[in-house]
């Protein structure tokens, strides 16, 4: 297995936050992490340069890498591109699909230091530790047929929500295994009261359950799950769901923790390759201002070390460094609260690096 890491900074705040994460990665290399790091273009920047949000050269490098660190893609500059296949998001979706990165792990953990930054009451969110397992290469995001066409004198838009049993089983196993390593509770989220595809989803989850007798499986409709997430989020341990529901619920879960700027994610395939990215987007409104929160990207490096390089000690060291910086009262603007010191993107990177070295 190669020891290559491909860094894809992307658009908007992507380059600023990956720059800070790359400094931490370099510090890990100095401590013996044996990896080769290279960079490439993806998203809007790649479109501007090559007319393609996922140029062949980038895809080739991605295929050859053991792990990919991605910042974010997209921005208003490219929002008017009519051809969806040229949109920056297509760079990201194309990577996920081409590499078969079906298993998306999105942890939502509340750092006790940030309880005040959550829009929910501290007593509702304190101790929150949820893992959302989102299917990432199927469902309505990729189903065929899709398009916009003329029917009976008007334009009609359509997409297809489709999952095969094997796709459901594959993500189900990831989620059951994850629950096994955590609180042993798995909630499968669907819309089985309306959509056949999720009736099948529920059936397959039920069929797997006896193989994991130590895990308690429950089912919830997605609308109820959205409500429960903001009503009583600590009832959840692991949530497993399809691509689109997972997209929506993971943003909601992220915000429970105070800021979407804190949350890393991992997307894994069957051959052990992984792509690691912050859950937030490219935030074009604050791009280039040195105010974005780099912590989700830095924590994505920690996830990478844990899942792709089996380096739990270095991963733990990064996470502890982030904890230390928060303890010291440093905050980027998105997580600032009374009595804390607001710092820039680079200052936050400096502080995490210093804490990492000092631990
Ligand atoms: C995410 C993002 C992407 C998605 C977009 C940028 C295509 O929202 O990773 O959650 O919808 O999957
Ligand atoms: Mg999303």
UniProtKB/TrEMBL annotation:
EC number: 1.1.1.85
Record GO biological process: L-leucine biosynthetic process
UniProt-annotated binding residues for substrate: 96, 106, 134, 223
This protein's UniProt keywords: Amino-acid biosynthesis, Branched-chain amino acid biosynthesis, Cytoplasm, Leucine biosynthesis, Magnesium, Manganese, Metal-binding, NAD, Oxidoreductase
Principal location: cytoplasm
Catalytic activities: (2R,3S)-3-isopropylmalate + NAD(+) = 4-methyl-2-oxopentanoate + CO2 + NADH
Pathway: Amino-acid biosynthesis; L-leucine biosynthesis; L-leucine from 3-methyl-2-oxobutanoate: step 3/4
Subcellular location(s) of the protein: Cytoplasm
Matches recorded under PROSITE patterns: IDH_IMDH
Cofactor section: Mg(2+); Mn(2+)
Site entry (Important for catalysis), positions: 141, 191
Family: Belongs to the isocitrate and isopropylmalate dehydrogenases family. LeuB type 1 subfamily.
Quaternary structure (record): Homodimer.
Protein's recorded name: 3-isopropylmalate dehydrogenase
Organism: Billgrantia endophytica
Organism lineage: Bacteria, Pseudomonadati, Pseudomonadota, Gammaproteobacteria, Oceanospirillales
């Amino acid at each position: 297995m190669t020891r290559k890491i491909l860094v894809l900074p992307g658009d908007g705040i992507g380059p600023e936050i990956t720059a800070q994460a790359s400094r931490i990665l370099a510090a890990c290399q100095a401590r013996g992490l044996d990896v080769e790091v290279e960079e490439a273009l993806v998203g809007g920047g790649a479109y501007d340069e090559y007319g393609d949000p996922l140029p062949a050269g980038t895809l080739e490098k991605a295929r050859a890498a053991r792990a990919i660190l991605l910042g974010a893609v997209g921005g208003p500059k490219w929002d008017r591109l009519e051809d969806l296949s040229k949109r920056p998001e297509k760079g990201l979706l194309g990577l996920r699909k081409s590499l078969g990165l079906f298993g998306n792990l999105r942890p939502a953990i509340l750092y006790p230091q940030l309880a005040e930054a959550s829009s929910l009451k501290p007593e509702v969110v304190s101790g929150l530790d949820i893992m959302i397992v989102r299917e990432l290469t199927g469902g309505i995001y990729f189903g065929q047929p899709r398009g916009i066409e003329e029917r009976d004198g008007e334009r009609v838009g359509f997409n297809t929500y489709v999952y095969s049993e094997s796709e459901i089983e594959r993500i189900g196993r990831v989620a059951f295994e994850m629950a096994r390593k955590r609180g042993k509770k798995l909630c499968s989220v669907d819309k089985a009261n309306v959509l056949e595809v999720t009736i099948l989803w529920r059936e397959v989850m039920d069929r797997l359950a006896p193989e994991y007798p130590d895990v308690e499986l429950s089912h919830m409709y997605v609308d109820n799950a959205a409500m429960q997430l903001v009503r009583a989020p600590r009832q959840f341990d692991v949530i497993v769901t399809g691509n689109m529901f997972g997209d929506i619920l993971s943003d909601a879960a992220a915000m429970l923790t105070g800021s979407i700027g804190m949350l890393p994610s991992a997307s894994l395939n069957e051959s052990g390759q992984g792509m690691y990215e912050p859950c937030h987007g490219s935030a074009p409104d604050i791009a280039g201002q040195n105010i974005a929160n780099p912590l989700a990207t830095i924590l994505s490096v920690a996830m990478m070390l844990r899942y792709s390089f089996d380096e739990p000690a270095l991963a733990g060291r990064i996470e502890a460094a982030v904890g230390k910086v928060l303890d010291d009262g440093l905050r980027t603007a998105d997580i600032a609260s009374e009595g804390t010191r607001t710092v820039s993107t680079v200052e936050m990177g400096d502080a995490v690096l210093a804490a990492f070295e000092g631990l």
